[in-house]
């Protein structure tokens, strides 16, 4: 997860409150919204896994590569000697990753055990019921051959035809509710981020970095730069296993749409915060690995949005067929 606080921390802060330019204010607001998005990012998926009692929808490879990216981010921030706030956020991100990965491993193990027990009980039932069933005939089958099957088939078709409009209507209502809930959540995150920046600015906690010290005077250690690029590559490649899994299963069941919306918001506002702060060549090149990672993950998030639209969550599609 990129951390805009690291970028805003470069260069010495101004010693007194000065009049903000619109560009500086937008940079600060976008940066704060980005941080709010990262902080709340994993919560929707944790809640979704808890409600489903399963983590089959999310790829462990996705989470593992993401976690490696956050570890690289943490080590890079320590190596570069960034401010304690940045390091604390990096530790928080790694801790949150571990919670989500642990939850997924727990549900996968628990459901695998249940599946084994269910399979064993089912086999025993079939063996116990097989012999009586072979010697028993149902009186309802008396009559013309195939008449009961035709009657059942016709009844099934009528029920399916009568229930189809209600299924479609219910699916549309549920989809509308999901989008309304997600929209309100995004608005809430934006309000929290903007309010956080306003409070930080009014109390003097946050101040704009002077443009003459926007990174050109701060040399990052080579190792920290390498780790920055490594984290960008991890963030960029993390979603590929998830996209492949969705395509293979033709379903996004078990995934939280809000999780990916928050990711898109965080990356978009992160990039905007950088570009509004400065477009100087030195500053731009210093932050290029994080910009590449953000832009790439935005493209991949949009791909997952298309998969949500095409596949849904599996159950609704199966019910309509």
TrEMBL record:
Keywords assigned by UniProt?
Membrane, Transmembrane, Transmembrane helix
Instruction: Mention one GO molecular function.
Output: basic amino acid transmembrane transporter activity
What stretches pass through the bilayer?
Answer: 26-47, 59-82, 88-109, 179-200, 220-237, 257-276, 288-306
- Pfam families listed in its UniProt record: PQ-loop
Q: Where in the cell is it found?
A: Membrane
What superkingdom heads the lineage? Eukaryota
Q: How does it sit in the membrane?
A: Multi-pass membrane protein
Region annotation Disordered: residue ranges?
A: 136-162
One GO biological-process annotation of the entry reads: vacuolar transmembrane transport
Biased composition regions of type Basic residues, renumbered to the chain: 147-161
Q: Which residues form a coiled coil?
A: none
Q: Which reaction does it catalyse?
A: L-histidine(out) + L-arginine(in) = L-histidine(in) + L-arginine(out)
User: Is Thylakoid tagged as a keyword?
Assistant: no
Q: Where does the protein principally reside?
A: membrane
The reply on keyword Transmembrane helix is yes
Query: GO CC terms on record?
Result: lytic vacuole membrane
What the record says about family reads: Belongs to the laat-1 family.
The identity of this protein, by name, is PQ-loop-domain-containing protein
Species whose genome carries this gene: Pleomassaria siparia CBS 279.74
């Amino acid at each position: 997860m990129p951390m805009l606080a690291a970028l805003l921390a470069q260069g010495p802060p101004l010693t007194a409150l000065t009049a903000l330019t619109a560009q500086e204010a937008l940079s600060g607001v976008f940066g704060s919204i980005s941080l709010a998005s990262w902080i709340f990012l994993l919560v929707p998926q944790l809640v979704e896994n808890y409600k489903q009692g399963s983590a089959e929808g999310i790829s462990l490879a996705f989470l593992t590569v993401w976690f490696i990216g956050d570890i690289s981010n943490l080590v890079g921030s320590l190596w570069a000697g960034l401010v304690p706030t940045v390091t604390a956020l990096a530790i928080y991100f790694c801790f949150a990753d571990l919670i989500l990965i642990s939850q997924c491993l727990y549900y996968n193990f628990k459901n695998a055990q249940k599946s084994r027990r269910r399979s064993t009980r089912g086999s025993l039932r079939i063996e116990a019921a097989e012999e009586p069933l072979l010697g028993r005939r149902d009186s309802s089958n008396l009559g013309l051959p195939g008449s009961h099957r035709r009657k059942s088939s016709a009844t099934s078709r009528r029920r399916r035809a009568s229930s189809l409009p209600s299924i479609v209507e219910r699916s549309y209502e549920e989809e509308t509710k999901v989008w309304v809930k997600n929209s309100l959540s995004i608005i809430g995150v934006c309000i929290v981020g903007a309010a956080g920046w306003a409070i930080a600015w009014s109390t003097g906690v946050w101040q704009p970095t002077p443009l003459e010290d926007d990174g050109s005077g701060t040399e990052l250690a080579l190792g920290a730069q390498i780790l920055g690029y490594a984290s960008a590559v991890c963030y960029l490649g993390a979603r590929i296993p998830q996209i492949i899994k969705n395509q293979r299963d033709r379903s996004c069941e078990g995934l939280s749409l809000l999780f990916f919306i928050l990711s898109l918001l965080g990356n978009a506002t992160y990039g905007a915060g950088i570009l509004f702060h400065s477009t100087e060549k030195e500053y731009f090149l210093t932050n290029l690995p994080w910009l590449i990672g953000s832009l790439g993950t935005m493209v991949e998030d949009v791909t997952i949005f298309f998969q949500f639209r095409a596949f849904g969550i599996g159950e609704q599609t199966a019910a309509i067929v």
